[in-house]
Write a structure and sequence with these properties.
heterodimer; A: 373 residues; alpha+beta; Immunoglobulin-like; 3 domains; seven-stranded mixed sheet; six-stranded mixed sheet; 4 helices; 21 strands; elongated; B: 191 residues; mainly alpha
Amino acid sequence: MQIRHRVRVVILLTLLLFCSAFGAAEPGGNGDSMRDMQCGGACHGDASMNETSQALLSLSADDTIYLGIPTTLTLTATNLETSSTRVIGLFLLTDMTGHSDTPQDAGWDILSDANGGSVNYIERTLTSGQNETTISWVLRASSLGPTSFYAAIHHGGASSSPFFGSTANSLAVNVEPVPENLPRLAADFTPPTKRLLNSPTELLIHTEYTESLQFEWMAEDGLVQTSIVNTSGENSWTTSLPAALQPTTVQWRVIMEGEGPEQTSPWFTLTAEKASWEVSQNAVYLQAFALLFMTAGIVLSLQNRFAYIPSLSKYDEAPALLEAHSSSSTPENPVSTAVAPLPAEGLPNGWTEEQWEWYGHDYLAGKYGGGNE
Amino acid sequence: MISSETFHVVTTELVVGAFSVSGLSFTLYLLVYFGILKRPSWESMFDNVAHFTLAFGLAATPFAILSGLSSSPGEGLNSPILVNKMFLSMTGFGFALGCLISRWRLGNAVWSSTKSSALHGASGLAACGAMLLTASAGGTFTRGESLLDIFHLPYQQVLLFPLLVSLTALLLGAVMLVIGWRRMNSISSIH
């Protein structure tokens, strides 16, 4: 019972430790991802678990949004207060129910976000003294009609409670049919968001109703530059960006001319990063456990071999057993090892007392030619 | 309420601290055993401290490994340093496990001969060394530097066996562990 009780206590403590590790808020951030408001890292969206953020959020969009053409939504966050880590998390949402509320759920594709990904939840680390920030998403609608957009924020603060806030009002946008002959990016064109370090990036851009195209890009210093564009077929264009030597982001856009009015695409963000490293996780875990068992097994085997264990045979225990046996003998049960009575003439000729102790009975039985026989 | 990063820091500090004390105690015990340190009365103390701290570090190790996996950025093992950390920590875990089981089942007999003492001390020190290397790799991963950088350890290189080799090694190790355990049990029953 005592062991069972201890096992229960150990299990309970283990569960508590795991709860603190995996069920807690993430003051260091939870990583950019596609997230519902309710699951934006440690349930900050749960009204019962957070305090109200004092941040002011404001969303804005282009005046006209066409079906299938990328457009920019900009979020401005002011009056920001954070914890010592200065990390904030920002959501772009299409309702405030807490679930199934991402732009994707409402039929919008996120082509680019401010961190060089394509997700609705991104994190920013504010610099010291910074209390406002502006970020953008590039989206593309796949259906006509109105959509309401919301923004939300979560962050830490002076107290240990998480803070959550959202836009006071929604931003209503209406997706219209695209005009005939409007120069535009192809409906199936998806801009890349990542590229590798140390190698120039070739971009292949597909357009529609476009006769000429200009390519502009902007590094983090804000200087806008152009690149030479070559055509590789009707409405197909190639251009290149110089190699990035450090993990950094550039933004690029195209200016398209054709029969219709000139069009400028949103700024797309392209992040340079190291080539990802991949490994078979099953192989790693299997090898890790193999190392564990092998090392433990080798240590045990060698220790068995080298440790000096005094060898105890059953004969080594005989004196102790005899002593125990003799001490337990009773007078009613005379032991067979009792010394035989000496004959009247004394010890047989040539015998010692010790020999008599052991072989006296045999002598009396006539085994050695004497005694009673 | 703490994050898995903070929990990982807490558990790794426990592991590294415990294993460091254990390694120091094993070293001092061996110095006494081989007559370099003339304090035979300290043997028992170093023996107890070495094994107690080793057991404590071993108990904290799974928490450090699990919280390390959950707190690493990105999905899963996406860096050779993380893979090497996993290998080193599991190797250290194995050494510590073997060392503790030996001490538990054989008792003072682990110190009964020079070879056995050297092996037992070496396994304890190997466990300590593997854990310190793991911590060093963690420092290299998060901060880009570590105290052991002077040795230019190849954390970026991963020696990954084919699945079949790992599987064979796993089975072989398990068999050795079971046989070793059973032999120690039979020795213990005589005692």
